[in-house]
């Protein structure tokens, strides 16, 4: 009897809209053995729209609003923590990935708030969270939202408070600041590659677009933004006050530590 192939592992990429999640997911997909969803008739090739196990429509993942909805924060206590949901998700996603991919990257903004549930459903999964200055995200998101910029900063705060509260429950996570990625792509890609244990060598298409959102009225930053190293000046980035990664394998932890 032929040996069974191991089930593919997932790396889930999450972050608020306009944070850089699409760029990071595309970079991960360039690594050897990594596959991404392709050819799907859904926005941004997001897997969240390709399944029916967890209800998701345009009203569930509203830019600048979804983190205000308690039903979008899914943990191990969720009613969706079941073998049936895992089987339905896997079956729904299988057809959209290259069959030879041993690591599958799935990017949906709401993954920012689903890591604890997905870890239960896919125990070998890893999580990459992309964060960007809250004022930049708010101003960029305002093109898609009728909410004032100050309210969109409040949404950034709500989302990232939930994220930081979830981190202690995760075995494998990496936080990527957009600003670090565009400032030193080679170093950031080495860090991401070390985390997924695959080399990522192509940094093409990476450029800093934060300056286009500079200026305007001053908006007070929430405390969680400062813990992530953000300051009032969007060009001033400080060292974060929290652990930006965790991995259950000690050799991968040490590899990333050398790059931080």
In short:
With 260 residues, this protein is of the alpha/beta class.
Question: How do the helices and strands line up, and which of them pair or pack?
Answer:
Elements: E1 9-14, H1 21-29, E2 34-36, H2 83-94, E3 103-107, H3 115-121, E4 126-131, H4 134-141, H5 149-166, E5 173-177, H6 178-183, H7 185-196, H8 223-227, E6 245-246, H9 250-257
Helix pairs in contact: 4-5, 7-9
Q: What descriptors fit this protein?
A:
alpha/beta; 260 residues; 33% helix; six-stranded mixed β-sheet
State the helix count. Answer: 9
List the uncertain runs: none
Largest sheet descriptor = 6 strands, mixed
Spatial strand sequence of the major β-sheet: 2-3-1-4-5-6
- The structure class reads alpha/beta
- Overall pLDDT confidence: 94
Can you describe this structure?
With 260 residues, the protein is of the alpha/beta class. It is built from nine helices and six strands. It has helices spanning 21-29, 83-94, 115-121, 134-141, 149-166, 178-183, 185-196, 223-227, 250-257; strands at 9-14, 34-36, 103-107, 126-131, 173-177, 245-246. Strands 2-3-1-4-5-6 form a six-stranded mixed beta sheet. The longest helix has 18 residues, at 149-166. The radius of gyration is 18 Å and the shape is globular.
């Amino acid at each position: 009897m032929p040996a069974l192939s191991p089930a593919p592992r997932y790396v889930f990429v999450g972050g608020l809209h306009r944070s850089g999640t699409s760029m990071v997911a595309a970079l991960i997909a360039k690594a050897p053995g990594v596959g991404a969803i392709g050819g799907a008739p859904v926005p941004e090739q997001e897997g969240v729209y390709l399944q029916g196990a967890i209800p998701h429509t345009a009203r569930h993942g509203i830019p600048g609003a979804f983190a205000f909805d308690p039903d979008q924060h899914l943990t191990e206590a969720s009613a969706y923590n079941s073998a049936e949901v895992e089987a339905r998700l896997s079956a729904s996603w299988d057809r959209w990935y290259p069959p030879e991919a041993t690591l599958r990257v799935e990017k949906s903004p709401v993954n920012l708030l689903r890591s604890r549930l997905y870890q239960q459903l896919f125990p070998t999964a890893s999580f990459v969270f992309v964060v960007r200055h809250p004022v930049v995200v708010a101003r960029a998101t305002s093109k898609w939202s009728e909410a004032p910029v100050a309210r969109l900063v409040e949404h950034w705060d709500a989302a990232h408070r939930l994220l930081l509260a979830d981190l202690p429950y995760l075995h494998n996570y990496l936080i990527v600041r957009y600003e670090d990625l565009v400032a030193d792509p080679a170093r950031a890609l080495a860090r991401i590659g070390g985390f997924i244990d695959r080399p990522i060598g192509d940094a093409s298409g990476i450029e800093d677009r934060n300056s286009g959102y500079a200026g305007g009225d001053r908006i007070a930053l929430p405390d969680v933004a400062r813990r992530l190293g953000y300051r009032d000046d969007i060009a001033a980035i400080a060292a974060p006050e929290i652990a930006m990664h965790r991995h259950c394998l000690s050799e991968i932890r040490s590899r990333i530590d050398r790059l931080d």
